[in-house]
Write a structure and sequence with these properties.
The chain is of the alpha+beta class. It has one domain: Roll (Nuclear Transport Factor 2, Chain: A). It is about 30% helix and about 30% strand. The chain contains 7 helices and 9 strands, in the order ααββαααααβββββββ. The relative contact order is 0.25.
């Protein structure tokens, strides 16, 4: 069972795509989304906006301590959520979609290390099967006393592209990433490699909800 949890890239995210216990539908949805968005879609896509900041963004998990935040903690309000995000996330246009998508991906190693799902839940739409799968897996690990360390994600900001697809009315934000290796820390003090790290591309389907952009689904295409 533990050996099956090892993956080549994007640690917990890619592991979810490979775990049969989570259902073939989730993997099929994520892979389809990745192929759909990364090829620019079919039909008549709208304008493409590319952001090219001068440096790559990265997030390192803050600590290797066991999760201390209760999954039942009060949900974040929109105001509290925006206070935790980059200022650009508050823009109602594509700039907000891009900033939110980048911030969301950077939460992957954080939720697996801390068990704090409040930001993750606040940015996930109910129809996001991938978002729910990550949430369920984090709760599984908390239940048995496990948590992840490592797996820091760096985003290639020069690769960011936002593509509006007028057939379904969503923005798709796509970019390349790299991730460091990650390990699972067990309650008995033992540990094991859970992700070897690697590179790839990810595509997020974004939708505006009031003053915040949220994630409707996620696709991953490892290199």
């Amino acid at each position: 069972m533990r050996a099956q949890r090892r993956v080549a890239s994007l640690g917990p995210m890619n592991r979810l795509l490979s775990r049969g216990a989570l259902g073939a539908g989730i993997a099929a949805t994520a892979v389809m989304l990745a192929a759909f968005a990364l090829t620019g879609c079919t039909g008549d896509p709208g304008p493409i906006v590319t952001e090219t900041p001068s440096a790559s963004a990265s997030v390192m998990p803050s600590t290797s301590a066991s999760p201390s935040v209760s999954p039942s903690a009060a949900p974040l309000t929109d105001e509290e959520l925006l206070a935790l995000m980059p200022p650009e996330a508050a823009f109602p246009d594509v700039r907000g979609a891009i900033a939110t998508a980048e911030f969301f991906v950077e939460q992957f190693p954080i939720v697996y290390e801390t068990g704090d799902l409040r930001v993750w839940d606040a940015l996930s739409m109910p129809e996001c099967t991938f978002c729910e799968s990550v949430r369920s897996h984090v709760l599984e690990e908390i239940t048995v006393g496990d948590h992840e360390v490592g797996g820091a994600i760096s985003i290639d900001t020069d690769s960011v592209v936002a593509n509006y697809y007028d057939v379904d009315g969503y923005w798709y934000v796509t970019f390349s990433y790299s991730q460091t290796p990650s390990s699972t820390m067990h309650a008995d003090g033992t540990s094991e490699i859970s992700g070897d790290g690697g590179t790839g591309s990810t595509s997020l389907r974004m939708t505006p909800q009031g003053s915040i952009w949220k994630v409707s689904d996620v696709g991953v295409e490892p290199d």
